[in-house]
């Protein structure tokens, strides 16, 4: 079992001027993946680790920025943001770490960024889908630190298919608390899933290597010193401290590590809890919870 670092990967390396020109020529045929940017002297190459994209998929994004001899860095610093939408629905908006601030980039170099992106489930696999798949608008843009306008540097329409039929379902067993609270609009209700001191899930064993991802958040009202233990198939994957705020854990699991059983038991255990009405005073619920769950991904 390998634990995957959850942060962005970024790198920088030098490239001679003649290689820059050659690379630019080689990139011309792949119009859908490489584009010239609205920033003079800057080109971009974008690729996903998975050739066939689907919903409910965690995939690695690799972005390569190529500066030519005519590149002039813009004034001020920017953040790189990846965004995906399907119709009016936002699928994700993730910030990517740059190897250097954009204002410090130099000509004739290559700057690389990597980030794991999660396309959540949004396609009804039982309804007929238009060929070659569901349209998803994907874009990358530089977001300024001040009041300047954002600069869109990449825009592409992806085609996503439903996740494979053999994708493991997540079955929530004991230890989970469903919290309903008023939404922003009158009559709307917001539903959240919280874990008690010990929460259980059942996962179907895929019989092959798989990735497990957990996303959630710890409320600021949680007592200090909160820790979590994650156990899968009778093996402790990790024990770690959880300060208030969002968290993400990703594990690369081998087929041998998952064992031979058809079903796998996932146990999430915390050492301290807080009452729901201490988190949401407008609710009367006094059940004890440890963290709010956003996503469990297993594929």
Folded structure, characterized:
The chain is mostly beta strands. It folds into two domains: 2-160, Macroglobulin (MG2) domain (Immunoglobulin-like, Sandwich), CATH 2.60.40; 170-298, Jelly Rolls (Sandwich). It has three helices and 22 strands. The chain has helices spanning 17-27, 255-258, 276-279; strands spanning 2-4, 9-14, 34-36, 42-48, 57-67, 78-86, 89-96, 109-119, 134-144, 151-160, 170-172, 176-182, 189-195, 198-204, 210-218, 227-232, 235-241, 245-253, 263-270, 274-275, 288-289, 291-298. The strands form five sheets. A six-stranded antiparallel β-sheet has the order 1-18-15-22-13-12. The chain has a five-stranded antiparallel β-sheet with strand order 2-8-5-4-3. It has a five-stranded antiparallel β-sheet with strand order 11-14-19-16-17, with no helix packed on it.
From the structure above, extract its key features.
22 strands, 299 residues, 2 domains, mainly beta, Jelly Rolls, 5-stranded antiparallel sheet, 3 helices, 6% helix, 6-stranded antiparallel sheet, Immunoglobulin-like
DSSP E strands, number: 22
Count of domains: 2
Total number of helical segments? 3
Q: What's the architecture of the largest domain, going by CATH?
A: Sandwich
Mean pLDDT: 87
Helix content: under 10%
Rounded to the nearest angstrom, the distance between the terminal CA atoms is 14 Å
The class by helix and strand makeup works out as: mainly beta
By CATH, the topology of the largest domain is Immunoglobulin-like
* Biggest β-sheet: strands ordered side by side in the sheet: 1-18-15-22-13-12
Gyration radius from CA atoms, angstroms: 22 Å
Along the chain, the helix and strand elements come as EEHEEEEEEEEEEEEEEEEHEEHEE
* Main sheet properties: 6 strands, antiparallel
- The best one-word shape is globular
Low-confidence stretches: 14-34
């Amino acid at each position: 079992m390998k634990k995957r670092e959850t942060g962005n990967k970024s790198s920088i390396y030098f490239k001679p001027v003649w290689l820059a020109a050659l690379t630019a020529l080689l990139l011309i045929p792949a119009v859908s993946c490489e584009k010239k940017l609205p920033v003079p002297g800057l080109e971009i190459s974008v690729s996903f680790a998975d050739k066939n994209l689907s919903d409910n998929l965690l995939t690695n994004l690799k972005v390569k920025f190529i500066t030519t001899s005519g590149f002039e860095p813009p004034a001020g610093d920017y953040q790189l943001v990846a965004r995906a939408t399907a119709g009016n629905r936002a699928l994700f908006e993730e910030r990517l770490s740059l190897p250097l601030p954009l204002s410090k980039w130099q000509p004739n170099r290559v700057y690389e960024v990597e980030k794991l992106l999660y396309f959540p489930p949004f396609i009804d696999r039982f309804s007929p889908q238009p060929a070659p798949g569901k349209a998803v608008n994907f874009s990358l843009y530089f977001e300024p630190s001040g009041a300047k306008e954002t600069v869109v540097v990449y825009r592409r329409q992806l085609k996503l298919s439903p996740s494979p039929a053999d994708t493991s379902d997540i079955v929530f067993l004991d230890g989970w608390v469903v919290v309903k609270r008023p939404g922003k609009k009158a009559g709307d209700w917001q539903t959240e899933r919280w874990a008690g001191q010990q929460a259980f899930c059942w996962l179907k064993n895929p019989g092959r290597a798989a990735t497990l991802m957990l996303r959630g958040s710890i409320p600021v009202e949680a007592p200090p010193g909160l820790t979590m233990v994650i156990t899968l198939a009778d093996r402790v994957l990790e024990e770690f401290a959880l300060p208030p705020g969002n968290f993400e854990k990703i594990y690369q699991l081998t087929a041998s590590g998952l064992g031979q059983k058809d079903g796998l038991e996932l146990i999430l255990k915390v050492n301290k809890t807080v009452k729901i009405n201490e988190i949401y005073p407008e609710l009367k619920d006094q059940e004890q919870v440890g963290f709010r769950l956003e996503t469990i991904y297993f594929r």
